[in-house]
Amino acid sequence: MLISCITVTQAGRLPLLRNAIADYARQTYASRELVIIHTGDSAFDVAVRALCASGLGTQVYVHAAAQGTTLGALRNLAIDLARGELVCQWDDDDRYHPMRLELQAEALVVEGADFCFLSDQLHWFSAHGTLTWDDWDREPYPLNFVQGTLLGRRAVIPRYPELARGEDTALCLSILQAGNRITRLRDVGWCYVYVYHGTNVWPQGHHAAIAQAKNFGAARLLGKEKILRERLAEYEPPLGTVLLPYPGGQIKIENKREMNFRPHSWDQCIFESVLSGEYGEIEFHGKTVIDIGAHIGSFTMLASRKGARRILAFEAWEENYSLLVKNCQQLVGVECHHALVWRSDNHRGALRWRKCVNTQNTGGGTVIECASKAGELLPDGDAFEVQQISLDEIVGQLGEVDLLKIDAEGSEYPILFTSKRLDRVKEIVGEYHEIGGLEKSMAIPGVADWSIGLLAAHLENQGFTVTIHAGSHAGVFRAVRN
């Protein structure tokens, strides 16, 4: 049976949404789709679609709704657009273990039920790293389940009331009044993490009251410590260090990576996107890797931890480069270079590099002289001069390259179109960006326009098989030598 996971989100929640999508992508239940409804502007729509273009392997649908639409109405819209026989509520700010869909779908089928809810959940207060295991079976029957963990048959789901909050409870009451059969899945609360992050619909007091009233007792919590440690280790990206308090003590569980991130930036989002498989499944062991647009070292770290033999990482912006060095200084076989990789047809000297108009997007700077990149305007703001190096120079130093990763914010076109040494590269993965209003100074002889279609054709002529995961203004491509 196809499961439609329905997500409602809004502008400003992209970092949270990224984790929810990463968890969806890692589900063990194969027959699924993701329906995302949002009330953001066109820039947010572009960002969401780009995030969903990263090779999730299953169908994803993104739909923009009018601002001011209530949460209940947005959930109804998502269900209307869903194609699955089953529907699962998939909130943008919570976390989901890879087995979540599989466990609930199996319980629903075995019990012959119309709906399946969890009877318990993990409750994470992310700001201070506290985790509780909440038992909703303490609520009076029949509302003794976690209302936000709905998985049910689409044909019998009532309409959500058009409320800004509290719509879950009203829907569950309608399900009970209709006499639908409900199965309650117990003791697998580790497969759903209810997150309090400070900007939730319900305030902190609401979350704290739930944790205090429903927290597992010491004996029950300690009895589940082993399985909890095992299951939390399977979350990617990890929750980090969490403390589970109980009368007389606490359990400490550490699942974290040591990385340097800037506050109020997309650093962590970019890192988590790369490590959760933005570029697909890649074999790194024993390979020589070039990382163009290394940012703060996410792809370089992934390659190193997966066994790459040698990695050359290139980053243009000095601020990013500083973090790249800090984050990768303990990695074996990594060489960090403060340079902009550019075209190979005899261009030298410094280039004019501009930050992204969205200052939170620390990975969006570019040297491309154009009106827009990936659907966003590029105003003429602060610029920095950066020294360049050509891809052919790098390849010439290495001799052979097993894997070239390129996320160069539009520079993928001049880098790849002008290279004469792609025959020494076995595989390429990267992002492409739609470019609008390209300045004449950027022209490449013999290249009519900068588009992913023309770039793919060029790579195919160079002996690669190319696959593209397209978004509205950006996407991911992969080229493997035949």
Summarize the SSE layout with pairings.
Layout: E1 3-9, H1 14-25, E2 32-38, H2 42-51, E3 59-64, H3 71-81, E4 86-89, E5 95-96, H4 100-111, E6 115-118, E7 120-125, E8 130-135, E9 151-153, H5 167-177, E10 182-185, E11 192-196, H6 204-214, H7 218-223, H8 225-232, E12 242-246, E13 249-253, H9 267-275, E14 288-292, H10 298-305, E15 310-315, H11 318-328, E16 334-338, E17 340-342, E18 350-354, E19 372-373, E20 376-377, E21 383-390, H12 391-398, E22 403-406, H13 412-418, E23 427-433, E24 435-436, H14 452-461, E25 464-470, E26 474-481
Parallel strand pairs: 1-2, 1-4, 2-3, 6-10, 7-11, 14-15, 14-22, 15-16, 17-21, 22-23
Antiparallel strand pairs: 4-9, 5-11, 6-9, 7-8, 12-13, 18-21, 19-20, 19-24, 23-26, 25-26
Structure report:
This protein is an alpha/beta fold. Helix content is 28%, strand content 27%. The protein is built from 14 helices and 26 strands. It is elongated, with a radius of gyration of 24 Å. The chain starts with a strand and ends with a strand.
Short description:
The protein has helices at 14-25, 42-51, 71-81, 100-111, 167-177, 204-214, 218-223, 225-232, 267-275, 298-305, 318-328, 391-398, 412-418, 452-461; strands at residues 3-9, 32-38, 59-64, 86-89, 95-96, 115-118, 120-125, 130-135, 151-153, 182-185, 192-196, 242-246, 249-253, 288-292, 310-315, 334-338, 340-342, 350-354, 372-373, 376-377, 383-390, 403-406, 427-433, 435-436, 464-470, 474-481. The chain has 482 residues and is of the alpha/beta class.
